[in-house]
Amino acid sequence: MAKNKKKRTSPLMSLISPAQFVLGVFLAFVAGALFLWAFQESPVEAYSALYKGAFSSNRYIAETLLSMTPLIFGGLAVALGFRCGLFNMGVEGQIVLGGMAAAYIGYAWDLPQVIHLPLAILGGALAGGLWGAIPGYLKARHKIHEVITTIMLNYIVFQVAAYMIAVGGPMKADNELPVSPDVLPTAQLARIWEGTRLSGGIFIALAIAALVWVFLFKTRLGYKMRAVGFNAAAAEYAGIKPGRMMVWAMFLSGALGGIAGAVEVLGVHYKFYATFSPGYGWDAIAVALLGLLHPAGVVASAFLFGVLRSGSITMQAIAQISKDIVLILTALIIFFTATNQTLRPILERMVLRLGSKREERVSSQ
Amino acid sequence: MTTAVEMKNIVRQFPGVLANDHVCLEVEKGEIHGLLGENGAGKTTLMNILSGLAAPDEGEILLDGKPVQFGSCLDAIGRGIGMVHQHFMLIPVFTVAENLVLGNEPRKGPSLDIKRARELVTELSKRYGLKVTPDALIRNIPVGMQQRVEILKALSRGAEIMILDEPTAVLTPQEVEELYAIMRSLREAGHTIIFITHKLQEVKEISDRVTVLRDGRVVGTVETQDVSLKDLARMMVGRDVVLRVEKKDHAAGEVKLRVEGLRANNSRGLPALKDVSLQVRAGEIVGVAGVAGNGQSELVEVITGLRRRESGRVSLDALEISDMTPRERMYAGLGHIPQDRQRRGLVMNFSLIDNFILGFEDSPPFIHGPMLDYAEADRFARESIEMFDVRAPGPDVLARTLSGGNQQKAIVARELQRDPKVLIAAQPTRGLDVAAIEFVHNKLVELREQDKAVLLISMELTEILDLCDRILVMYEGEIVGEFEAGEATPERLGLLMAGSQEGGV
To answer: What domains, with CATH codes, occur in chain B?
Structure first.
């Protein structure tokens, strides 16, 4: 009897999360097709243009990977916060701040490359991390909800950023534009693909994703954070200090956002300006949710959002379809990811049926 | 006798579990029918199906011989089936009358006709002899009365068949007696009652017939008067069960846990502990009896460091631990089985492995610098599962997929593996079935024999009376009585628990 029960929780169960991901995306594209059709556009044409825009040439592929990079960092930032029960809505601000710090270190300090580049990235991480730790502390100490504080802190960053590079601002370059001076070559992330803008940042992103996985699932600190995220009362009972974990989680989450900004500035723009992030920090929330808060899922969904971002521009050019359809698609993906949770029991039941059918076959042989 | 309810070959599957496996149940009109089984035997699932909350995968339901199908619990209510859940579905800030008419409100124009609602309550309460106060807020009335409100609510919807899910779990001994009286008078009025329980004495005392479920299947339906408690236990568990723990005489040693003049507030900032002092010696089980909400939870939390004290001291051996963090107290030798296993004891979305190392995650042998040694954790989890007979498909399943009894066994396993000098066991058997209770009780007695000190907080008088060497009674934040094992009787304890002075020593 007990043995039978054992078999029913089959290894198929571990495929449910990827299935959930694929199903969510699929449903979003189906619903998106309905929207296109309602606007009397051809879904086939739109989606093939989207595909072409993301993959049809080296340059397009590079652009796809390029927008994927900050989305990985941002998605990891949001996912890490969520794992500790915290909703970091401040990634956009942390990206901007990280970019600002990295740019400053990049142009103001003169150092050999082996030190300069890592230091600039680290500076971005530290800036984002400390900024993220503020809402963490406020939540831990004064129970102020992090959604409110992270959003509010975003606006402070945006205004500071605008001031820094405005006329007379402390980071303003010596020219007509509202930008910072160029980052010195010693702090630039090298381009790795002839004829494209792709930098080594994508590899840093993938490496950090692996590190975050190790951190969350193999280290003591990651374990404690997840315990607090799932059940703070039980963590406290076991002697873990939930408040301390919250500050740590928000620091690390913010640091990941900061790295996103640093890599973007040091690898793509080579200078800081106030609007260098086209909302990566907001997309990051969708990336993390679609990725089911798992680093591998985050990489997969960052890739998808990278495709949407870079493909949409070409789609508008080739197929004359407004790239706003991508905003609709994004919204639909978020919608179906959220509703996907209700599909989970259904998927589990399907797996169950499958499992018991197989068992019958085996026993009838 | 005619058959009121017939359930035929009911099958209901959940991921990993066959909750009901071709279950057949026949309930006669006007009887009190016990539905007995361990946790996870499928009792509640079966009744959820009967009350329209869940749909069966297979099988049919007949009422008065006619097949019926319920799309929702409203359908079932329409057919005269009412269920009183284990956790009451009442709104605490509404009055009794408001709760009673909720969903079926008498109206005066667009607004609630509160006068009519109040009349309805008085009328019903008179007809069935159930005492309630129509204008009291639910949160201000005792649990027993809340339950009566739930019963009245079902009756007001025309329930002919009443399902009571573990109705005695939250009641004091006196309230249980009142409930039995209500059940008998309902039976006299022609109602049919199905009541779910895992307590043998209750079945024996109140039911006419009983159906026993085990592992989702029916073991049998019997006339209650024809069977003994031992028979029922054997049917329920599938083997002979020791109903009363064997406890050898054992001399208590030196004081291990000392609590002196403890004062603390509850979460609303009101005094919950008013100068509590107690001692537990090595090789001794000291029980704290009392109705829930009289400061027991706060006492446990202050001792374990989860709640701030206003004044007083707690010491373990000679070491004062009052100012230590929970982790430091744990390292000093304090073990704690928390009263709410799902809220405090386990991280439900963690695997068993992760749960077994909860609290161990900073100690050897589970650490490798900043990393956790999962090979070691896995070994430890398997060992604990084996030693403490936790029924789980494997160490990597999520804690929430286990039954309550196995969750509790996992907690007990983890806490005993710490080898504590003093164990605080808060309601360690709440909601557990006979076999799991037997297991936990044996473990506590083993600790006593190993000269550990055990402080047992429990709402179950039988548990306290069976296990403890000394019994304290808590009432409104104070210790109002202390008994040696031999002196205490349920009556004396019950009176003290209810706040009367007469039972006192």
So the answer is: 3-237 (3.40.50.300), 242-333+420-505 (3.40.50.300), 347-418 (no CATH)
